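TICKET: design request
STATUS: open
ATTACHED STRUCTURE:
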C-alpha cells in the first residue's frame, strides 16, 4: 500500500489507523521505505531500529483489541541522547559510540505504555552542544527545505526527520533553544516545556538546570498530544513538578507583550517585517499587543555561556575512559583519561569543557559563575514582572532564517543564533516555536518561527496562541 506520509499528522494517522484505512505495519513500512531513499542525503537518522515492524505489529494487536491510545502505532524519532533500553545511544559522540542503554528514559517508558513505534535515533550536535547540527561526530544534518543550509541544532536530526517526512513526530532536548530554533529553521512546531514538566531521567545531561526533553510535530495539536504523553511527576527526577501545579495555570491569553528593545539584536529586516505582520494579524483576531521591558534579557547570552559550560564540564567528567564508553590505552590512568577525552570529544565539546572548568576554578568562580547566577535570577524576575502585565510574550524564534552550512565558523556568531530562545531556559518558563511565514534566500522560501513564552506551567496559553497562528496561515 502506498500513501503520502510527508505531511501526515498524529491526529490524521490516529483517525486512519482506527478506521483501518491502513495498519501500523503499513505506516511503519512507508516510513522505512522513505528513510531508505532520503536519509543518505539528509543524515537525519544515525540508526534505524531493526525491530520497527515488530513494534508496529504489537501496536496493530492493541488497535484490534480496541485498547489504543493517542500515540499507539505512531512512528516517532528519538534524539540520540534519550535512552531506550537495549538500544545504542551516543549523543553523536565518538566517546560513546556503540554504548547500549541499560534502562528506559521516563519519557520512553511513558510512550511505550501507549505502544508508540520508535523508528530510530536522530543525529544531533555532539552532547547537544551546538546550534546547527554541524558538530556531530557522524556528519552534519541537512535542512530538507534547502540541503545547503543547516537544520538548526542541537536537535537538528529530529527537526529534519519531521520536516522531511520521515517521522510523524519526534523527541528532542532543549537547553537554550535546541528544539525551538531547529523547529523555526525547518518549518515545524517545537515546544520547550516548563522546567520540571517533563522528567529528565534517562536524558543524557548537558546542563542539568536547563535541559528539557521536548517534542517536535507538524501541528500544534500534535505537539500537545506528545507533550501530554510524556509530561508528569517522576520520582526518579527530583526536579519534576507535581501534576497539580499545572491544574491551576490554565488561562485564555488576551494580551501579548513584545520586548521591542530586545528585538534589535542581529535581526534581519525581512524577518522583523514578518514578525510585525503576524502581530498585526493577531490584533485583527482581537488580541491586545503591548510593548514590555525585559531589561536583563540582553545579558542572557553571556550568562548562558557561563552557566551552561560550567554544568556541562561537571556532567561530562564521567566520561573518563575507565567506567564506560571509549577507552584509549595509556601509560597510566591520567594518560588514559587524556587520550580518551582528546580523541573521544569533538572541538566544540572540548571548548565548552574548558570554558566551564575555567569559570568554576578557584579565583574565577566569584568573577564569573556566581555573578552569572545573580543575573540569571534577575532575568527570571524580569519575566515574573512582565507576566503581571501580559499573558504571553512574543518574539521571533531566531533573528534569521536557516544559514548556510559552514557560514558561522566563528563560535560567537553561532551562539548568537539563540539570542531569543536562551532567556526562556534561564527562567525555566515554557516557550514554543510555530511557523510564521517565509523569506526568500538564494531563490528558496525559507521558513521562520514565531516564539511565544508563557509563565511557569502556562503551556495551555502557548497552545492557544500557536493555534491562532495556524488558523491565520490557512486563511
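STATUS: resolved
RESOLUTION: sequence designed for all positions
ATTACHED SEQUENCE:
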Amino acid at each position: 500500500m502506498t500513501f503520502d506520509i510527508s505531511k501526515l499528522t498524529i491526529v490524521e494517522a490516529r483517525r486512519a489507523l482506527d478506521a483501518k484505512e491502513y495498519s501500523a505495519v503499513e505506516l511503519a513500512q512507508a516510513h522505512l521505505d522513505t528513510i531508505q531513499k532520503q536519509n543518505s542525503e539528509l543524515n537525519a537518522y544515525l540508526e534505524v531500529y531493526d525491530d520497527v515492524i515488530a513494534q508496529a505489529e504489537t501496536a496493530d494487536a492493541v488497535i484490534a483489541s480496541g485498547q489504543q491510545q493517542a500515540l499507539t502505532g505512531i512512528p516517532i524519532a528519538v534524539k540520540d541522547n534519550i535512552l531506550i533500553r537495549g538500544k545504542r545511544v551516543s549523543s553523536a559522540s565518538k566517546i560513546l559510540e556503540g554504548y547500549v542503554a541499560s534502562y528506559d528514559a521516563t519519557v520512553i517508558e511513558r510512550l511505550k505504555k501507549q505502544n508508540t513505534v520508535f523508528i530510530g535515533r536522530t543525529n544531533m550536535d555532539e552532547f547537544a552542544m551546538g546550534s546547527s547540527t554541524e558538530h556531530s561526530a557522524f556528519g552534519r544534518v541537512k535542512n530538507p527545505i534547502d540541503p545547503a543550509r543547516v537544520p538548526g541544532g542541537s536537535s537538528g536530526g529530529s527537526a529534519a526527520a519531521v520536516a522531511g517526512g520521515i517521522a510523524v513526530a519526534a523527541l528532542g532536548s532543549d537547553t537554550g533553544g535546541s528544539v525551538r530554533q531547529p523547529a523555526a529553521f525547518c518549518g515545524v512546531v517545537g515546544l520547550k516545556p516548563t522546567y520540571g514538566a517533563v522528567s529528565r531521567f534517562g536524558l543524557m545531561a548537558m546542563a542539568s538546570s536547563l535541559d528539557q526533553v521536548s517534542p517536535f510535530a507538524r501541528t500544534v495539536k500534535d505537539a500537545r498530544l506528545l507533550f501530554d504523553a510524556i509530561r508528569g511527576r517522576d520520582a526518579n527526577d527530583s526536579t519534576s513538578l507535581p501534576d497539580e501545579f499545572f491544574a491551576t495555570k490554565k488561562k485564555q491569553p488576551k494580551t501579548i507583550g513584545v520586548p521591542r528593545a530586545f528585538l534589535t539584536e542581529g535581526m534581519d529586516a525581512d524577518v522583523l517585517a514578518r514578525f510585525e505582520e503576524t502581530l498585526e494579524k493577531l490584533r485583527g483576531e482581537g488580541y491586545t499587543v503591548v510593548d514590555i521591558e525585559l531589561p536583563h534579557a540582553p545579558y542572557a547570552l553571556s550568562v548562558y555561556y557561563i552557566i551552561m559550560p560550567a554544568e556541562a564540564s561537571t556532567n561530562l567528567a564521567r566520561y573518563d575512559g575507565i567506567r564506560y564508553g571509549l577507552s584509549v590505552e595509556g601509560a597510566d590512568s591520567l594518560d588514559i583519561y587524556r587520550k580518551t577525552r582528546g580523541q573521544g570529544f569533538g572541538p566544540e565539546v572540548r571548548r565548552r569543557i574548558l570554558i566551564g572548568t575555567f569559570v568554576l576554578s578557584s579565583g574565577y568562580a566569584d568573577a564569573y559563575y556566581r555573578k552569572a547566577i545573580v543575573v540569571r535570577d534577575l532575568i527570571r524576575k524580569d519575566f515574573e514582572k512582565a507576566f503581571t502585565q501580559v499573558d504571553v510574550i512574543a518574539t521571533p524564534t531566531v533573528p534569521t532564517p536557516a544559514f548556510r552550512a559552514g557560514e558561522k565558523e566563528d563560535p560567537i556568531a553561532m551562539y548568537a543564533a539563540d539570542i531569543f530562545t536562551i532567556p526562556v531556559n534561564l527562567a525555566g518558563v515554557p516557550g514554543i516555536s510555530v511557523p510564521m511565514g517565509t523569506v526568500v534566500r538564494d531563490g528558496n522560501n525559507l521558513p521562520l518561527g514565531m516564539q511565544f513564552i508563557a509563565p511557569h506551567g502556562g503551556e495551555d496559553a502557548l497552545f492557544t496562541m500557536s493555534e491562532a497562528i495556524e488558523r491565520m496561515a490557512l486563511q
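CLOSING REMARK: The radius of gyration is 21 Å. Residues 365-386 form the longest helix (22 residues).
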